[in-house]
Structures are given as structure tokens and as C-alpha cells.
Automatic annotation (TrEMBL), chains A, B:
Coiled coil: none annotated. Gene3D superfamilies: Jelly Rolls, Winged helix-like DNA-binding domain superfamily/Winged helix DNA-binding domain. Keywords: DNA-binding, Transcription, Transcription regulation. Residues 154-228 form the HTH crp-type domain. One of its GO terms (molecular function) is DNA binding. This is Cyclic nucleotide-binding protein. The lineage of its organism: Bacteria, Pseudomonadati, Pseudomonadota, Alphaproteobacteria, Sphingomonadales. GO terms for biological process: regulation of DNA-templated transcription. CDD domains: CAP_ED (cd00038). InterPro entries: cNMP-bd_dom (IPR000595), cNMP-bd_dom_sf (IPR018490), HTH_CRP (IPR012318), RmlC-like_jellyroll (IPR014710), WH-like_DNA-bd_sf (IPR036388), WH_DNA-bd_sf (IPR036390). The keyword Transferase does not apply.
Length: 256, 256
DNA sequence: CGCGGGCTTGACAAAGCTCAAGACTTGTGG
DNA sequence: CCACAAGTCTTGAGCTTTGTCAAGCCCGCG
């Protein structure tokens, strides 16, 4: 956990270790000043327990946050109890960064696992981060569009594969994946509520994917047999969001 | 069509007539300077034919746009021909406004009807607009989240009602609705591709909604029998996006 | 008047849901 | 170290919603 008092001199060092900062670096952050103030923000991190809400739908957003460890999710609850996850938030993701003066949360943000978050440097304080923030916002939106396509036009098997590929891609960017494997701290029930399915059907389709040799999933750990082949099989193309050269967004892991 | 050369003196006048500007005004724009430069932008409007692409997915965004007349949509095509509409764009909506230096379009934007668009004043030129732009972006995102919930957790009937209510709400904000009625320039096929359904099923469900007395739909014109009651029936709550007092976002029309 | 796009309808098939029960894990307290 | 409880995962049977295919109709436009 980042609790040590970080100085500018440590900044690069921190950058290299903290998954959140690895992720931001992959978005094109390579500025020492930005790194220093990020390291500073990281030093002021605080924990949040699983199942706690970070923001609640319709209420004012207290302050922006950056997720450092653990998984969170944006979720909406319908009056009759149905639940829809809009997106998952991984280390490095920004929460509630809005240009508006008094933004209201458009969805509840809940900690899926125990989580560590911090208050990110504001753009005013650290203009060097503006680019990374803009890119992060654009990527966020691209993933929302991907979620819409998933729910609207993919069948159950495709939805599962597509989401797992997306998560693998994002975790790889943060160096939180180990080759084709990664930790997936979600129940099938949560996955179902993200994919617009029932947990029973998710279960059946996951088993079929296992039988087809597309993946292994046991004890919270997923291994994709061949991400590139799976992506081809379901016609997935990862989101591209910036035309700037040298910005490594949406890296596809080489097939095994 | 806005072709007359607008001066600052005309600004308020223009504001009162152009649906796009009415919509922006409802987002809290009440600054004379902003209005003048908007009127200026409007004076440089240009038409785009139905079915033409305004931006194409994955390509660089040429320039930001503001829609003034007609309908457009953000759409994604899958390799096998499946199609998903992410959102509909109405007069006053901004297209491709990104803080990024070289943004790529995350989805194709296509003109659904003949359309008139213009280049909106940049924030740098006209800081008075920053607030309205931020609010507009927030509202955009809220509608994306609504679309996700619709596709993930509503059944066919609820999806149709929910989308029609959303459109009615947005058109009302632009004063483009006449009470509970509004023009809907969409085929059932397009609606189906927005709702993640087939056109056959949309057709059946629309007919059922007619039988239930929830709506009329004939010749491109929809009348909702009682929007408030329909919203209650499907448990819909319109998005709220700002805590600023006096910002009239997401007005619900009074029930008939 | 005929053409074409969009709407409507029917019969049937498939995907996904519901309900219900049992098996397996994991963490906890004794 | 064991036994239990709670939460997850798995499986089956039957059902509902939505999709597919195919044909006919309607209406506006050239």
C-alpha cells in the first residue's frame, strides 16, 4: 500500500511500481512534473472496503478520485431490484472527474473488492496531466460504447468473451495480467449483471467456453487460451482513441 | 435555414428561434457574449444529406460540430453486418468535442435525416460557453448510461417506451415537441438497431403499446398518451446531471 | 399505374429465463 | 483439525421472450 511519503526524487520509482501509474504512463504520460505530483497524490491514498459506495447516483460528487488498487464498478439499480453494471473501474481509472462546477453522479460507484483510492492532482495544479486525463476520459467513453454494442448486438457467448478480452487488455496495460492470465474478482452473478444476462445462463455459457477450450476460470483466476484468436473468433477490435504517435493505447497481447 | 449574417445585436433573437440554441439555453446558457458567438457560428452553418457520414469510426475527427437541424446518430457496424446505434443526436448536440489533441472517432456519426450543422465556437474563443459545453457532455454521458441500462435490463416493451420518453424529453427541451407529440423520423428498423431488437419484434411491441393506449405512431409522428404515467409504469427517472440551481435539465412534461 | 420501401402478420425455432435442488468452497468458531 | 454456515457454482426441466423466414399489404413517389 502506498503510505510512504513520496518525494519528487522517488517519482519515477513509484511510477514503475504502482499499477495505476503504469496505466497512466501507457496513456502517454511521460512528464516528470506530472509524475511527481501523482506520486504525491498516491502518498495520500486511503482504503475503501468492498461493497462500500464511492459515490451514489443522483447525489453531488464529493471529490474526484483515482483508483489505485482493487476493482470498483459503476452500477445502476432499478426500482424493482434489477441491477446493471455500466463499467468496471480498474487501478488508474478516474472517477467523477467533471468539468462541471456541481456535478451529480450519473451512476453509483461501488467498490467490488477492497480498494485503495486517492484524490488525483487537479488539472489546474498539474497541467502536465491534462493530456493523460483527456485520453483517459476518451478511453472511458469508448468502453461505454463497447458495452452498448455488447449488450445490444452480441449473444451470450460473445458478450462473455468480449468482456473478458476487454478486461485482459486493460489489465495488461496496467501490468496486472500475467501473460494470458489475470485475477478476476467477480462472481458470475456480478458478471451477469454487467452482461445483461442471468447468472444461470452465464454459468452455462462459461462452461461451454471451457469445453471449447477458449478459457480456464477457477478460484478467481482466468486464463484465456489465445486472446488474439478469441478476439478474431468474435470479431472484436479493441478501441482506438488517439491518433498521437507513441501513445500505446489498447495493446493486444501477442497470442500465446 | 440560418444564413443571415448575425450580429451581436441579433443574438438574443437568434437564440429564441433556433432549436439548437433553445436547447443550449435550457442547459443554463444565459450569457450575451456566448449567445453572440453562437449566433455567429450558426450563420456559418452547412447542410449534410441523409445517410452521409459526419465522422467515421477509427478515423481522425476533422472538426467539432454542432447539430442545428435534423437527426443524426452514433452507430457501430460489426464485421458481420450487425448494427448498433449508440445514441441519437438532436439539434443542439455537440459532436466530436474532445479535449484531446488528435482524437479518433469512437463511433461513426451518420445523418439520419437531412441535417444542418455548424462548427461550434471553441472554448478558447468563447469561455462563456465552457459551462454549457461541460453540462452538455455530462448529459451525453448520462444518456449513454441510460442506453446501457435499457439494453441490459429492460424488456422489449420497456425499451421502446423508455427511448420514446427520452426523445420526448430531449425534444421538449429544444421546444421541438408539441405537447405530448413529436416527429420521429426513424424507421422501425433503425429503432430496432438502437434497442437491440429485430424490426419484427419492435413492430409487434409497438402495436401492443398502441393497443394498450400508451401511444399513437403514424406517418413519422408519435403521440404519447401520458408521458408521466408511462414513465411511472416502466419505472423511468430522467437523468439529473447538475446540482446548480436554475439549470433546467431533464424537464418532465406535465401529464396530459 | 407500378415500384419500392417500410409495415404487418403467421408459423416455427432458438436463446435465454425461472424455479428448484444439490454440490462445492471458503471462512469461522469450537 | 473439524464442523458448520453462507455464499457460489452447477444442473435439470419447463417456459417465455425474442428471433427467423417468408409472404402479403400499404402508401408515397415518379
Amino acid at each position: 500500500m502506498p503510505r510512504n511519503n513520496a518525494h519528487a526524487a522517488d517519482a519515477r520509482h513509484e511510477l514503475a511500481r504502482e499499477p495505476a501509474l503504469v496505466g497512466l504512463a501507457a496513456l502517454g504520460l511521460n512528464d516528470a512534473a506530472g509524475a511527481a505530483s501523482l506520486a504525491d497524490a498516491v502518498a495520500r491514498a486511503y482504503p475503501v472496503r468492498a461493497r462500500r459506495e464511492l459515490t451514489s447516483e443522483g447525489r453531488p460528487i464529493a471529490e474526484p478520485r483515482m483508483l489505485l488498487r482493487g476493482w470498483a464498478a459503476r452500477v445502476r439499480l432499478l426500482p424493482d431490484g434489477r441491477r446493471q453494471f455500466m463499467s468496471f473501474l480498474l487501478p488508474g481509472d478516474l472517477i467523477g472527474m467533471s468539468a462541471q462546477p456541481q456535478p451529480l453522479a450519473a451512476a453509483t460507484v461501488i467498490a467490488v473488492t477492497d480498494v485503495v483510492a486517492c484524490r488525483p492532482p487537479s488539472i489546474e495544479e498539474t497541467p502536465a496531466l491534462a493530456g493523460a486525463y483527456a485520453l483517459s476520459a476518451a478511453l472511458d467513453e469508448a468502453y461505454l460504447l463497447a458495452q452498448i454494442t455488447r449488450l445490444g448486438r452480441l449473444n451470450a457467448q460473445e458478450r462473455i468473451a468480449d468482456l473478458l478480452l476487454e478486461l485482459h487488455e486493460r489489465l495488461t496495460r496496467n501490468e496486472m495480467a500475467q501473460g494470458n492470465a489475470f485475477d478476476l474478482p467477480l462472481t458470475q452473478e456480478v458478471l451477469a449483471d454487467a452482461l445483461g444476462l442471468t447468472s444461470v445462463h452465464v454459468n452455462r455459457m462459461v462452461q461451454q467456453a471451457r469445453r471449447d477450450g477458449d478459457l480456464q476460470w477457477k478460484g478467481g483466476r482466468v486464463t484465456l487460451a489465445d486472446p488474439a484468436a478469441l478476439a478474431r473468433k468474435i470479431g472484436r477490435t479493441p478501441p482506438r482513441v488517439s491518433g498521437m504517435q507513441g501513445v500505446a493505447v489498447a495493446i493486444v497481447a501477442p497470442s500465446a
